[in-house]
Design goal:
Blueprint (H helix, E strand, L loop, with lengths): L1 H24 L4 H22 L3 H22 L5 H11 L8 H33 L1 H14 L1 H18 L5 H27 E5 L8 E2 L3 E3 L2 E3 L8 H10 L2 E5 L5 H18 L1
Antiparallel strand pairs: 1-5, 2-5, 3-4
Length: 274
């Protein structure tokens, strides 16, 4: 039990630092994620050596492998940025609390469920707060996004909405599908408006760092630096700095606090149940 307490306290400290860093700089340093892996596996190894039970260490390696896959799925599925994906991988070395593989699988599933639930709520609250702070700009941008997407709205969404609404006269359940389509359309326009108003900033090229997301493709002489999910690399930053003084970048919501909150929920659940 003390081994789990130590690992939990260690991880909470690491994730507090990661959360502060993510909120302030919109990035999580590689050294933070990699050091958590090293410290977690190092502790597992020495604890296993003293107790002559290497199951605790092996489960950490297995967890690291499983969460390496999960982290990459989230990253290449464009749910996470690079730092978030690496933090998910690092948690794989921590989350196997038991020597029993099946018990650890239950812990993994519980964490993912808690993480997705809290992540969804966190995203809504964060965007809602941003919306209130930038209400006037958001109102104008919402109208712009409506005009940009009016063809899809009038040619696809409204006909489908009307179809479900008319069908609800036959079966009332279709009414809820119609409302769901309407809510989805509003949330999509709201999300696009939030992105344009709150997530896009023009910064000095001196402040451009590796992994930053360009808002649009940037022309540098006869070449172009494309806006891509992986962000800009060091060579691309050098090129941009030769031809531009300022550039637009897109920031995501700082997601490290979701890891911290989810982990705290999981640890509380573990000590209550076990």
């Amino acid at each position: 039990m003390y081994n789990v307490i130590f690992l939990s306290v260690l991880t909470i400290c690491w994730m507090i630092v990661a959360s502060i860093q993510d909120i302030r700089k919109r990035e999580i340093a590689n050294w933070l994620n990699f050091s958590l892996i090293i410290f977690a596996l190092g502790f597992r190894f020495f604890y296993s050596s003293f107790t002559h039970n290497f199951g605790f260490f092996y489960q950490g390696l297995i967890g690291l492998g499983i969460f390496f896959v999960i982290g990459n799925i989230f990253y290449y599925g464009k749910v996470f940025a690079g730092g978030d994906g690496k933090l998910m991988v690092a948690l794989g070395a921590v989350l196997p609390f038991s020597d029993n593989f099946l018990t650890n699988i239950s812990v993994f599933i519980a964490f993912i469920f808690i993480f997705l639930t809290i992540g969804g709520l966190y995203g809504l609250v964060w965007s809602f707060v941003l919306g209130i702070k930038n209400f006037k700009k958001l109102e104008k941008e919402f109208i712009i996004q409506f005009k940009k997407n009016r063809k899809v709205i009038f040619l696809v969404l409204i006909p489908v909405f009307s179809m479900f609404l008319i069908s609800s006269l036959v079966w009332s359940l279709f009414f809820y599908f119609a409302i769901l389509i309407l809510v989805f359309a509003i949330l999509f326009l709201y999300a696009r408006s939030i992105e344009e108003v709150c997530m896009v900033k023009k910064i000095s090229v001196d402040d451009l760092t590796e992994g930053d997301w360009l808002y649009r493709t940037v022309r540098v002489g006869r070449k172009v630096v494309k806006s891509k999910w992986e962000g800009v690399n060091k060579e691309e930053i050098k090129l941009i700095r030769k031809y531009h003084n300022r550039v637009k970048v897109k920031y995501g919501i700082p997601f490290a606090p979701v890891f911290l909150i989810s982990f705290l929920f999981l640890v509380s659940f573990w000590f209550v149940v076990f």
